[in-house]
Amino acid sequence: MIADLAIPGMSETPPEQRRRKIKWALPAVAVIALLAWAFPSMLDYIATEQVTRRTKEVEEELDREGPAFATSVREDADAIYFAYVLDKPLNPAEKAVFMRKDGGDVIPYLESLLTSHGGQGLQLPSIPESDGYTSAWLMDFFSDRASGLAITALRGREIECEPAAAKTVVLIHPEGGGAYDGIHFDLSDPEVPVSLAPDENIGKPYFSHKKIDLGNGATPGGLYVEVSSGIKDCEMSFEAEYRDAEGVRKQRIRNAKEKFRIRGIPAYPDQFFAVTQRVLDCRAMQRSSEDCPALPLKAGTDLIY
Q1: Does 266 share its domain with 211?
Q2: Is the Cβ–Cβ distance between 198 and 151 less than 8 Å?
Q3: What's the rounded Cα separation, in Å, for the pair 48 and 196?
Q4: What is the pLDDT of residues 228-249, one digit of tens each?
Q5: Which of 5, 127, 150, 158 shows the smallest number of beta carbons within 10 Å?
Q6: How many CA within 13 A on the CB side of residue 304?
Q7: Would you say 195 and 183 are in contact if contact means Cβ atoms under 8 Å apart?
Q8: How many domains does one find in the chain?
Q9: Could you tell me if 23 and 79 lie in one domain?
Q10: What is the 3-state secondary structure (H, E, C) of 182-219?
Q11: What gap in Å lies between CA 93 and CA 85, rounded to an integer?
């Protein structure tokens, strides 16, 4: 009877046939038992693989959401200014005080005028050929993406310019200057920033030989960016082009939420001073000399004092 439960009809089968049936039936029973044991595990494995794959896909989708990188913008705390543009003219008393300044007293007085009169200090460009004096920033790039990406281009965008509006201009005769490893933009050609690296690549398109790697645990990248606008005041943003696993993409860069502001030197400032060993009133001199550039001031290397 027990044999009939395992193999139907077994109790009525002759002994020899019964042994043969049992011989062939036992392996089949073993296979069935093995499948019955393994099948749930196989289902669990398949389900786990599907969950793992979907989890990875979701993580990759989340990784690609939002900006590819963040940019921190700051001014160079060690900048040395060789031009000052003031929004208000000096009154007679202020002018008289300024004309008496010399040596180390000139710069502190100009810095105080920036506070009281509004305006900005401008730097010398780091390359020989330029539209003029520059405004500069230090940009730090960060990305917490698990996948890697590389910034391969940086261009000027949303550029709006008008004639420089400063009332007073002070140019300081340079006595040497520092070199920076970064990029220079002339707003007369904002598509192609050139390299400032003090090597064989200076003056060449920066991103023709360099890129900024981010994400995938890469060290945050930093870049010195200087912009010259000649005799115009301009506002602009930057557009970074980057490559990742999905292809080529673009992302805008602003100074916090505002555009970058670049100050220029007006062609005919109301007040125009030059500083050498002493302060010179170039408008009062009414002629050009080695100490006073000729008016009108023009964009380009002739603008640099």
Answers
A1: yes
A2: no
A3: 54
A4: 999 999 999 999 999 999 999 9
A5: 5
A6: 18
A7: yes
A8: 2
A9: no
A10: EEEEECCEEEEEEECCCCCCCCCEHHHCCCEEEECCCC
A11: 19
226 is written with which tokens? 């200087």
Does this model's pTM top 0.90? My answer is no
Strand order in the sheet with 271-275: 119-122, 83-86, 168-172, 271-275, 279-281
Q: Are 80 and 173 in contact (CB under 8 A)?
A: no
- The closest of 274, 269, 265 to 299, measured between CA atoms, is 265
The arithmetic mean of pLDDT across residues 251-257, rounded, is 94
**Of 38, 63, 88, which residue is a domain's last?**
63
Structural domain harbouring 51? 2-63
Q: What is the pLDDT of residue 72?
A: 94
Question: In this structure, what token pair is assigned to residue 23?
Answer: 């011989």
pLDDT digits (tens, 9 = 90+) for 4-61: 544 555 455 565 655 555 555 556 556 566 656 666 666 666 656 664 455 444 444 5
- What distance lies between CA 250 and its chain's CA centroid? 11
Say if residue 71 is in the same domain as residue 59.
Answer: no
More confident call, 2 vs 79:
79
Cis peptide before 296, with omega less than 30 degrees from 0? yes
For 135, other C-beta atoms within 10 Å of its C-beta total 22
Are β-strands 189-195 and 182-186 bridged in parallel, bridged antiparallel, or unpaired?
A: antiparallel
**Is 107 in the same domain as 163?**
yes
Angle made by CA atoms 149, 150, 156, in degrees to the nearest 5: 125
Indicate whether 164 and 289 sit together in one domain: yes
Q: Mark whether 145 and 253 lie in a shared domain.
A: yes
